[in-house]
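As promised in the previous annual report, we have extended the structural survey to additional targets. Below is the entry for Class I glutamine amidotransferase.
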Amino acid sequence: PFLIHEIEGLKQRLKDNKPTIGICLGAQLIAYALGAKVYAGHKKEIGWDKLKINQKDNNLLSPLENIHVLHWHGDTFDLPDEATLLASSELYPNQAFQIGKNILGLQFHIEIYKDNFERWLIGHTCEIRQTGVSISQLRTDNQLYADKLEQSCSMVIQQYLSQIC
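The corresponding structure token record, generated without further manual editing, is:
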């Protein structure tokens, strides 16, 4: 029920074309607020993997080319009308979208830092075990990929901020 109020506020924000970034559930809420379908995916996507970056010219996510990002979701969405697909993964085609210059939806996580990842593992232990994903592999991958993701994320955010209206 609390999401009803969140979605109403989000609809107004999007209507006003205010700069908005949605990560994971946030991307799903943006899609839903714009009339797209959000639904349970065929499989949970948990772990570090690369994205397929679409239309590399003028794509905010081009700094993420060949970078492992953290995927952690079970739901997915259809693209909203007027959205440009920025990235896909092997499991889910709609990983990132942009509408105009101000609205950015990311299904994956770029906000993770190496030092705060352990809290994710503790908080989601049951979910991880249900999927059969290896916690030790998640830890190892975090050590391998998080620093590079943090650097690339900084470039993505700087590019986004430099072009918003």
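The longest helix spans residues 135-163. The beta strands are 20-23, 38-50, 52-53, 68-77, 84-88, 96-99, 103-106. These points will be discussed at the next consortium meeting with the crystallography subgroup.
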